[in-house]
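Researcher: Predict the fold of Beta-lactamase-related domain-containing protein.
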Amino acid sequence: SVAIMMLIEDGELGLNDPVVKYLPELASLTVLTEGERLPLVNPITVRHLLTHTAGFSYGWNPRDPVDALYASVNPERAADSNDFLQRLSTLPLKFEPGKQWHYGVAVDVLGVLVERISGKPFNRFLHERLFEPLGMVDTFFNVPATKLDRFLPNHVWDWRNRKLTMFTNANDAEFKRVNFFSGGGGLVSTTADYFRFAEMLRRGGDLEGTRILEAETVALMTRDHLPDIVPLVKNGVGRRAILRRGRGFGLGFDVVVDTANRRGAASIGDYSWSGIAGTFFWIDPVLDVVAIGMIQVLRSPLRLSTEMKNLVHGSLMTDEN
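Model: Structure tokens for Beta-lactamase-related domain-containing protein follow.
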């Protein structure tokens, strides 16, 4: 999302540009309506991708007809960005672009868009325009051999036996021979590196004299861009809605819009996101803090993000009083 906004600041594209202007491979996308694939009424725009209102999915719900197709085509397992677009072009959308909110591969499409517009592989663009300027020395798609001894394994919580099971390690090809540089996931990093990225956002796009984004751009990204009421797709992401009450969505971030309807502590304008294996971050513009949690546990029974936020808020409020 930050990479796309950098290109928008460069004048290379606009938020309301149709995506097919740059990715013609997606020109024949359809929307699944009552079992029938119909042509789109409205084109997918860059803004739709950033706000997860394009109609894409991830294929996590086997009972949903669109998700079942995603599971069979599996665009996330593409060999490269061209293969990703080819796979995605065969899948229907869940809904007409701009009509609903649903978490899906929209950010992966943004990564391909960065490649197409910049003329550089996504990993190189990130290194040259983001990681190197910010001093993020330990962030990669492919972990260098000299740093593999620091790479921690991933785990999954076995609910039946109530124990942790390791299922990835430093020798997995997934982290050493990557060819599809996904905008939606796959980067390996450290707490220190990600703090530099998050701190840049907290400071309005600048870190230690290096400006990545204009302050006005960060403000635009971190406000709610959804209508007051955006219905979730029926059965989308199981029955557990990622977009809960009291939360809107900006240009790449979950944004708190109503603290009264939230579970746990939060400030209006608090923006955040989390990873599938339990990593999370949030930036609170009211308390003026950055918080990051780095764990590697899929299906974790712990609510670490909520508990940490409650403790941070409680501590700061106590100090202020």
